[in-house]
Structure formats: C-alpha cells, structure tokens
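pasting DUF7587 domain-containing protein for the record, 179 residues
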Amino acid sequence: MEKYESNANEERPSRYYRLLRDNEQPVEDGIQAKDPCAQVDLTCHVENGSYNKSQYISCTETSESVLDWGKHNIRNGFSDHMRIAVIDAVQLDLTGGVTIYDCEWLRENLKTEKAINFANEYNEVVVEGNIGQEYIVQVIEATFSDATFSDAVSEYVKKGFEKESDKRITELGYMLGFL
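structre below
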C-alpha cells in the first residue's frame, strides 16, 4: 500500500480529535494502537474500528465528528461519558515515525464503499505509529446524566494552550446542548 506523504503546501487541520477508550491515558502514555505489530488491512480497520486489534489509531478532523461518535456510543449503551484527546496535528505531521492517512487519502484509497462512507461520515484520520504524549494539547471529559449531557471539563491542558482550550470547552458545551 502506498503511504501518505505530507504536502506542506496543503491546508491541513491544526487539531485531530480522538474519542478515548476508558483505559487510555494519553497524558501519561500517549496513544498507542491496540496491536502495533498487527498487519491489518487499512480498509478492514476503517470498516471494523475498535472491533479488531490493529496497528492503527483512528482520529477525526473535526470536533463535531468526535462528538457524533461519542453520542453514538452513549446512545448504544457502550458508555455513559466521553473522553476526548485533542492532538496537535501540525506537530504530529512533522514528526518521523508516524504515517497519517487523512480523509482525502482514505476517500481515494479505501477498497470498499462501506469503509469510504464511514471515513467520510466521521471525517476520519488514521495514524499508523504511536501518538506521543507531547502531542496531546487537551483531554476533555463530557458527562451524561438524566438523558442529557451535564458538563464538559478539561482533565488536562498543555501549558500554553489555555485560551484555546477554554474556547473549545465553551464550543463543546454549546454543541452538546448544556450552555
């Protein structure tokens, strides 16, 4: 499979968003794939997500998409809250050791309509390689009670990102309907 190569002339998102599993601690450990040594096909990973253990980490380009996926998990009883890691996409893109498959690349290269539709619906970005803790700029937890979202708070904010993080919490509050 041809790897995605970053093009510095392209307009790229400055942040990626990851809906965290309960056992993920990105501030302490970064974000790792479930099985970094796996050889799962990228199309299979996008179609099946967390149901298979792969060498990939799924993220999204938009806060709206990560919230949609989090709400989906809550509606279907998989969780009663959501934790979101906000990743510095610019710095991650500049590092060696990771390959980033953005939504455009996925649209052009995934092998099935199901995978393409899923990637489009959630503005998916797939990272191959570990996302180091130094690229995490914020971790947000949104809690759910009495059939509505009740709060969104920052569990962590990287030094120097406080204003951006405060703005993001306010935006998420409006998007979740409690502000």
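The helical segments are 26-29, 42-48, 63-75, 89-94, 103-109, 113-121, 162-176.
The two ends are 45 Å apart (CA to CA).
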